[in-house]
Amino acid sequence: MSDSPAGSTVRRVGMFGGAFDPPHWAHRSLAEVALAQLHLDVLHIMPTGQAWHKARVLSPAEHRVEMCRLAFGDLPRTQIDTREMHRAGPSYTADTLSELAAQYPGATLYLVLGADQLLAFERWVRWEDVLGKATLAVANRATHIGADAPLDQMQEMDLSGVRLPFERLSMPLKNISATAVRARIGQPASRHGPLDVLVPEPVASYIEQHHLYQDPT
Questions:
Q1: Residue 176 and residue 184: Cα distance in Å, rounded?
Q2: Residues 21, 59: contact at Cβ < 8 Å?
Q3: What does the pLDDT read at residue 190?
Q4: Where does the chain have alpha helices with state H?
Q5: pLDDT digit string (tens) for 3-46?
Q6: pLDDT tens across 129-169, in order?
Q7: Do 7 and 100 contact (CB within 8 A), yes or no?
């Protein structure tokens, strides 16, 4: 975890949440762009606890936290924040933003997310509260992000119909998803090739060392 400024000096705070199962190059790029474009004093990277919107069982928390440290730990002004993992029951972004607002009084809050999440945003629990607490900072994604999506796909999701206020992040399109990473690892080693094309090398080494995603779901 990188050092973050003291609460009294922080004026611009980002929240970047997700399962991070595993964190990949698109996650890393999104964090870098958010830090630079939004001029953040600190970016809280928050692995999800009990995700109300995930049908599948996530990997154990300790693995996802350690992979986040390996993927983001060298970035300045970042903090790997595990508070949602310690929260009893389902974890909601509105609650976390309330805690951040109390932690950084008077700071401007940004919620960093991908276009796929923006398109589903009005299905979030208490999404109106989220909008009242933070500015949405959105990076576009490719139209097809499933397990079999080509890495070189260049067609972006259409956000023209979105009526919610958001700030667009200028991030080059990276068609990588955690679903695709897990599916690739589940293939025979002779087929999936080097993992560091999809995830940072320390994360790839950790996945192989701990035999994660051998039977992806």
A1: 11
A2: yes
A3: 41
A4: 25-37, 61-72, 93-103, 115-119, 127-133, 178-185, 189-192, 201-209
A5: 555 555 789 999 999 999 999 999 999 999 999 999 999 999 99
A6: 999 999 999 998 755 555 555 555 566 777 888 999 999 99
A7: no
Contacts of 65 (CB under 8 A, 6+ apart): 47, 80, 82, 85
Strands (E) across 48-180 are located at 78-80, 108-114, 135-139, 167-169
55: Cβ contacts below 8 Å, ≥ 6 apart: none
Tokens of 214: 């051998």
C-alpha to C-alpha distance for 137 and 166, rounded to whole angstroms: 6
CA distance from start to end of the chain = 29
Q: What are phi and psi of 90, to 5 degrees?
A: -60, 145
49: tokens are 């606890």
φ/ψ of 27, rounded to 5, equals -60, -45
Tokens of 36: 């630079």
Structure pTM? 0.87
201 burial type by CB count under 10 A (0-12 exposed, 13-18 middle, 19+ buried): exposed
- Decide: residue 141, CB within 10 A, 0-12 exposed, 13-18 middle, 19+ buried: buried
Question: Any idea which residue has 């611009």 for tokens?
Answer: 12
Q: Which residue has the tokens 């992979």?
A: 67
For residues 205 and 211, what is the distance between their CA atoms, to the nearest angstrom? Answer: 10
